[in-house]
Each structure stands twice: as C-alpha cells, then as structure tokens.
C-alpha cells in the first residue's frame, strides 16, 4: 500500500502547541508521509513553539504583516496553500480548532477536493460573534471537514446535531494534554527571573490572561479594577498578569495595575514558561479558551472572564466557572476561592474532562482506519 500523504497546517502559537504532539505521532507511523505547513499567522510566538517541540516545517507561507486584517490573512493563506497543494497533492490535510488559518486552510483544500481532518472539532458557543471570529471559523471548517476529531462527548453531540455522519466523528480527547506531558516539570526553573523569586508555597499566586476582542474597552477595565481590589484586600495573594502586547489591552492594564503591590505585569511567556507557571500557581483567571483545558489538567481552578464558553465540559465538571466581566462577580468568586478551602478543593480536585495524553495516537489511528489501513475503529476517549 502506498503511504498516505498528510499535510498538517497551523499558524498560531495555540495551534502549534496542540498540533506538535500530533506531528510527532504522524512521523512515527510508517504508513504515513507526513509534511508540515505553517502559515505564520503569528510569527514570533509560533517559532517559539516550533523550537520547543523541534518541529521543522516543510513549507512556511510567512504571511504575517503589521496590522493584518482577517481578510488579508484569509486570502494570503488560500493563495499560499494553493501552490503547496498543487505541488504536493496530499491525500489529507489536518487543521486545528478555530483560527483564520484553520478555516482558510480547510477552504483551500475544499477547492482542490482534498480531504480535511479537523482536530478539536465540534466546540460551540452558538453565538457567531462570541468568540469572534473563532466561532464561525470553527463551524465553517466543520461544514467542510471529512473527518472530525472531537475532544469530548459533548463536542460529538454538537456535530451530530449539525447532521455530521457519526462514522466520521472520533472522540479523541484534546491534544493539549499530550503537549503538557512534555512541557510541565515540577522542578522547573524559569528563564523569566522574576518568576523564580515568587513564594508559591506561602502566597496564593493568581495567573491572569485577558485580551479577547469582545472584552476590549469596558470589559478589560472592569477586569483590572476587580483584580486590583482582590489583591488589595487579600494580603496573601500575589498576581502575575501576562499582558497582551496589543496597546488596546496593554494600555488599560498598565493604567489600572502598574505599581500595585504584589502585582507583576509581564509580557506573554513562551509555552513552557506558561505551563510551568500554571503548574505552580494557586488559580487561573482568563478569557482564553486553551487555558480552560490546560489548568484543570494541573488541578488549578479557573475563573473564566467571559459570559459564554465553547468548552462547557469543564464548567459541568466543576473545574471552571464563568464569571464574565462584571466587577462584583469577579471579586466575589475570586475571594471565595482564596478564603474558603472547601470551595477551592471542590474545583481543584474535580476531574479534567479533556484527555489522558493519548489524543494524538487516537487521531492517527482514526486516520489509518478511515483510509483502510486498520480494520477496527479505534477506541474512543471517555472519562
């Protein structure tokens, strides 16, 4: 049998973190001819992950431009991939999640009638503008995809409601858990020196990220005001805010929090630093999607600074709570975890619904099954 030619496509740091373990698994299989194409929708942050996991792209579209628009990203990805597909003629392309690279990659493959596998398929908020543009990127990719690698049972249920054939859906768990098994080290020493000076044993260290478009303006202001009050009213709390470099976010954060005692404002960390900070911290407050999956794996409660989430499993299991951007809600829920051990234990000891570290293996097995190289459909991830 000839090898299945698979091109894995990604362009941002979060995609790269979740696709790197899958690339490594694809490379192990003798039935697969594995190639990697990066769009570099995010350049510097992507390169950090490629170096960390020792992934060497076969194709680099290098599309990133200053002040790039969604339209510009989409068109440059489609045009760049057209050349790659014409020269390589893959049997299958793999895209991940909900970025503009993901949707544009799927669309480019559709135009060439190339099969599409969607990793982390089926997540939904059911509001096309929250998160924007990710919700529609994910839905539109799902409409194109031939194979749907859903991380959880509820993701599969979403796809079934959209009339996706059950035989094309595989519950795999989330590849981010695979990645964290590689990055987290209990004896880790940070390259960001200030993080080595924090007393993680005697201080309740809160890790914060907040930068989503839908929170720009009043949302970020409310978050910062609430964080200041939480720190000022709890002497045992220390806060590390990883501040997005976009001035729309950065200027507001520094306006409200710069100079506050026990608050550290740092630029975004690389993946290994981020995962190990999460491992050492007391709790996480974020509007990120990925951190809602990562922190529960480490037993860290998460307060989500959004009103909706496409990851309801963690909310249902009790590891994550939606608090939105209302100041009083943020303060009340943060103080509850800081001051009430029983409330903290309820969230920190809940079961992580997102995986067991074998998602990449399940995805590759599903590919081999779908192309007739395995007789039996692989066993699915379940709790």
Task: Give a short overview.
With 383 residues, the protein is α/β, with parallel strands linked by helices. The protein is 44% helix and 15% strand.
Detail the topology: elements first, then pairings:
Elements: E1 4-10, H1 13-28, E2 32-38, H2 44-53, E3 59-60, H3 70-88, E4 92-96, H4 100-111, E5 115-119, H5 134-144, E6 147-150, H6 153-161, E7 169-171, H7 175-183, E8 204-209, H8 218-232, E9 237-242, H9 247-257, E10 263-266, H10 271-280, E11 283-286, H11 291-297, E12 302-304, H12 312-317, E13 320-322, H13 327-339, H14 341-348, H15 359-370
Parallel strand pairs: 1-2, 1-4, 2-3, 4-5, 5-6, 6-7, 8-9, 8-11, 9-10, 11-12, 12-13
Helix pairs in contact: 1-2, 1-7, 1-15, 3-4, 4-5, 8-9, 8-13, 13-14
Order of helices and strands: EHEHEHEHEHEHEHEHEHEHEHEHEHHH
Low-confidence segments, given as residue ranges, are none
**Sheet of most strands:** 7 strands, parallel
Q: Based on the structure, what is the oligomeric state of the protein chains?
A: single chain
Shape: globular
SSE class: alpha/beta
Lateral arrangement of strands in the main beta sheet: 3-2-1-4-5-6-7
Task: Give the strand tally.
Answer: 13
Strand content: 15-25%
The number of helical segments is 15
Helix content: 40-55%
Report on this model:
With 383 residues, this protein is an alpha/beta fold. The protein contains 15 helices and 13 strands. The strands form two sheets. The chain has a seven-stranded parallel beta sheet with strand order 3-2-1-4-5-6-7, sandwiched between helices. Helix 1 packs parallel to helix 2. The radius of gyration is 21 Å and the shape is globular. 50% of the residues are buried. The model has no long low-confidence stretch (mean pLDDT 94). GO terms for molecular function: UDP-N-acetylglucosamine 2-epimerase activity. Keywords: Isomerase. Belongs to the UDP-N-acetylglucosamine 2-epimerase family. InterPro entries: UDP_GlcNAc_Epimerase_2_dom, WecB-like.
């Amino acid at each position: 049998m000839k090898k299945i030619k698979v091109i894995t496509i990604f362009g941002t740091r979060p995609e790269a973190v979740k696709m790197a373990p899958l690339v490594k698994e694809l490379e192990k299989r003798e039935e697969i001819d594995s190639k990697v194409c990066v769009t570099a929708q995010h350049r510097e942050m992507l390169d950090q992950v490629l170096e960390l996991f020792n992934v060497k792209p076969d194709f680099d579209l290098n599309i990133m431009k200053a002040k790039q628009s969604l339209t510009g990203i989409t068109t440059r990805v489609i045009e760049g991939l057209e050349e790659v597909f014409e020269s390589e003629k893959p049997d299958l392309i793999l895209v991940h999640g909900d970025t503009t690279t993901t949707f544009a990659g799927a669309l480019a493959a559709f135009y060439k009638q190339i099969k599409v596998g969607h990793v982390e398929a089926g997540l939904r908020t059911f509001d096309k503008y929250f998160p924007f543009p990710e919700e529609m990127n994910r839905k539109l990719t799902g409409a194109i995809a031939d194979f749907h690698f859903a991380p959880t049972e509820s993701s599969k249920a979403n796809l079934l409601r959209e009339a996706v054939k059950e035989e094309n859906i595989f519950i795999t768990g989330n590849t981010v858990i695979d990645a964290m098994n590689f990055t987290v080290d209990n004896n880790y020493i940070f390259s960001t020196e200030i993080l080595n000076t924090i007393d993680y044993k005697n201080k309740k260290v809160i890790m914060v990220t907040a930068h989503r478009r839908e929170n720009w303006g009043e949302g970020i202001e409310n978050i910062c005001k609430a964080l200041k009050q939480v720190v000022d009213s709890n002497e045992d709390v220390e806060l590390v805010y990883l501040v997005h470099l976009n001035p729309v976010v950065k200027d507001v954060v520094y306006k409200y929090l710069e100079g506050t005692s026990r608050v550290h404002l740092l630029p975004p960390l690389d993946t290994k630093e981020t995962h190990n900070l999460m491992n050492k911290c007391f709790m996480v407050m974020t509007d990120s999607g990925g951190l809602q999956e990562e922190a529960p794996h480490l037993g860290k409660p998460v307060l989500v600074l959004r009103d909706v989430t496409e990851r309801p499993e963690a909310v249902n299991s009790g590891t994550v709570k939606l608090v939105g951007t209302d100041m009083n809600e943020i303060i009340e829920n943060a103080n509850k975890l800081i001051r009430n051990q029983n409330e903290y234990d309820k969230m920190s000891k809940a079961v992580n619904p997102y995986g067991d570290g074998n998602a990449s293996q399940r995805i590759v097995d599903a590919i081999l099954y779908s192309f007739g190289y395995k007789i039996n459909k692989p066993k699915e991830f379940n709790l």
